Amino acid sequence: MAKFKFRLATLLRLRESARDERRTLLAQAYRAEDLILEERQRIEAERAALERQIRDAAGPGEIEVDRLLEAQRFELVLRTQKEQLARQHEQVKAEIERRRQALVEANREVQVLEKLREKQHQRWRDEEDRREVKRLDEVGQRRALGEVH
Known about the structure:
By secondary structure, the chain is mainly α. It is built from 2 helices and no strands. The longest helix has 84 residues, at 65-148. The radius of gyration is 35 Å and the shape is rod-shaped.
């Protein structure tokens, strides 16, 4: 019995490779988003600590003007960083969606070829079964003819 050979096997391997690459690129984009979110949390923690410092510096007793001015400048830096991170996050989210769509398309291309391979394999199996039945019928006829004569 001959072995089944899918004529588009090389194309299927190429498409699987492209799909795997797109999957890797999407994972990288998700990791970039995670880093941005971690940085945002760090900035929020710094801002909360800075607010406590400002309250302490402006509390009862002597007011430390230099410390307040420095804290306000640092708060402005943190706010700017947070805004920049928000812009980066929007860009990364757009990139994630683009890469996700590319992965969906790559998956679809692979599935089309896999479905074609399965259909061809089933046709090959059916043909092999027909050949085997025909061969067995011929053997049976030969035996029957041999027994009759």
